[in-house]
Structure prediction request, 436 residues.
Amino acid sequence: MNYARQQRKKMVLILVLSFFVVGALAIFVVRDTTQFFIEKQAEEVANIVATFAKTARSVYADVAINKLKSDGYGAHVDSEIHKGYIPIPAQFLKELGVATEQNTANLFHYRPVSRWNIEPSQGLSNEFLKWAWPQLEAQDQVNPKGPIEWQPIFRIEKANGENVFRYLTADAATSASCVSCHNHYETTEKVKKLRELSGVSHGKSWKQHQLLGALEITIPLSRIEHVAEEQLNRAVLWIAVIFFGFLALIGGIYLLNSRLHRNLENLSWEANHDSMTELLNRRAFEREAETLWEEAVNSDKEHALLFLDLDKFKAINDTYGHHAGDAVLKAVAEQLSCERREYDLVARLGGDEFALLLPYCSLEVGLLVAKRVLRKIESIRIDWKGEVLIIGASIGVAKMNKGSPSIQKVIEQADMASYIAKKSSETKAVAFSEDP
Prediction:
């Protein structure tokens, strides 16, 4: 029973630990998924911003610049000193980025950048750009046959103590006029001197669809992380509620199960023990003794069975009442329990009859034990309402070996020997003998 109880406790502990591990893994997965979601959402926003910027520049070039060209003017890099001209698309894109940043409450920032830019503020001015630009260059082609499928470069990094999403996407030379314009700039003395000062070889020439510039987009993540943290906390709260609910359920089941097992143990104990003396009852004794009998009949092992029949018990019951008789029975049971070895079987067979089965004892040893038990019982003194109750016993001893037909037969033989002892005036411990 104790082993079963330990196994139940172990199972409950395993269930609790398993759920704790699953809960911890769930929190980890939720946190990891949240981080992945933040990155994917930031990437999606960056794609939208890049598409918007490129579309705005295309509309600017197609509508504004083409209209001015048809009127005899157009776009010029030094438009501020040329009347009738407006900034080139790259300059427009830069100004659009500045205005957008000012009007979007710092939700994102973007600006055109390039290794070949002649505007210092649009060069590779930070570690992210120095890391990301070579990865875009690696995607470039020597002789592109059409638009290149550029893959953006991005990562999350710290800036002023906060996480930001840094994103760089190619802004290729999409039109022949764009290529012609930039190739021309590279041949001017001003740009050649600028390249020499920057340590960059001059004379760069582009083909349509090649990497000319890029859009750098920066998205602060503090707001979305705050929302994600709230969602994560909510998820953790639900996991905690489920976890503690699970613990409460397991606890309730365990308590009910423990109570059920205690009840079953009590019922089992009551079914196998005498309630008065707490010794084995006859049925349990015979069941336990059956194992030893089977061993005896299949081997040369021998066991001794003592059958005790109390003397003067009926007189005590009639004179002093059943409570006095109960006290006698308990005192005898206590003496028998003290005399038994760990593996001996002691039982109250009913009324004032007791049995003591001594495994691996010969008949002679059993008779010696019987005499010792007699002395113990005869030494019992019970103070009952001013009267001293003295009890005696008659003990019959029978052997159990391969010749024994059944455990019931052995008990019967020991009972017959106790009857002889009760009638004897010489000894109160008699060994059964089949001789007349």
Residues 282-431 form a domain with the Alpha-Beta Plaits fold (CATH 3.30.70.270).
